[in-house]
Amino acid sequence: MAEAARTVRFIVTRQDGPDATPYTEEFEVPYRLNMNVISALMEIQRNPVNANGQHTKPVNWESNCLEEVCGACSMVINGKPRQGCSALVDNLEQPIRVSPMKTFPVVRDLVVDRARMFNALKKVKAWIPIDGTYDLGPGPRMAESKRQWAYELAKCMTCGVCMEACPNVSEKTTFIGPAAISQVRLFNSHPTGEMNKDERLDALMEDGGIEGCGNSQNCVRSCPKGIPLTTSIAAMNAATTKHLFKKWFTV
């Protein structure tokens, strides 16, 4: 007698729209060696039939690179915020429970609106303004010792996992979150970026800035790229304190 084909059971938290009531739906997906959560969701999309044999709407989610670089496929898998592309089925306890991140508003199913994080990056000017400087020649070089640790900060893929893990980021708070704070450290360390250093520090000292961090350290434990977020927060705590004293004595 032929052995029954192996399947993987998923329990997906779904939501038909931003104001709709969440509900769960179960699916059984044919197992494949080395499959990840995204490939399972693709199988459900190809054949949207739930575990009861009923045809249903395909599950909505976001993904892009499928190699843990873009940060688009962030979701909560078995209670842990992470990337769906790097979550291998063989390493997960079953049934595999998949739900959207709660920190951000749900658009539909596993798709969330991460505008809060991007607005935080805008607030701290997490970029290097170079408009009009194209004819000034090569910029200043960054010391190799600084470049090595700055590169680690540059690995941030704005996935939002650190904000999901942070207990101080919620709809009741205005805390900008660890990602934006770490990016201030990155751009303030750049030889050209440091020209706007004071503006970024001022932004961190506003309501919802660095004072909102409760030092739970969930962010650094959950970051899929291993970014030293708590080190950045400590460094920016020191930098904003020095900046405050500097402002006092220059008034």
UniProtKB/TrEMBL annotation:
What is the required cofactor set for this protein?
[3Fe-4S] cluster; [2Fe-2S] cluster; [4Fe-4S] cluster
Coiled coil (residue ranges): none
Q: List GO BP terms, alphabetically.
A: respiratory electron transport chain; tricarboxylic acid cycle
Entry keyword Iron-sulfur = yes
Keywords (alphabetical) are: 2Fe-2S, 3Fe-4S, 4Fe-4S, Iron, Iron-sulfur, Metal-binding, Oxidoreductase, Tricarboxylic acid cycle
EC number(s) of the enzyme? 1.3.5.1
Does this entry carry the keyword Cell wall biogenesis/degradation?
Answer: no
Q: Name one Pfam family in it.
A: Fer2_3
Protein name in UniProt: succinate dehydrogenase
Q: Which organism is it from?
A: Paenibacillus albiflavus
One GO MF annotation is: 2 iron, 2 sulfur cluster binding
Q: Give the family this protein belongs to, as stated in its UniProt record.
A: Belongs to the succinate dehydrogenase/fumarate reductase iron-sulfur protein family.
Occurrences of domain 4Fe-4S ferredoxin-type (ranges): 147-175
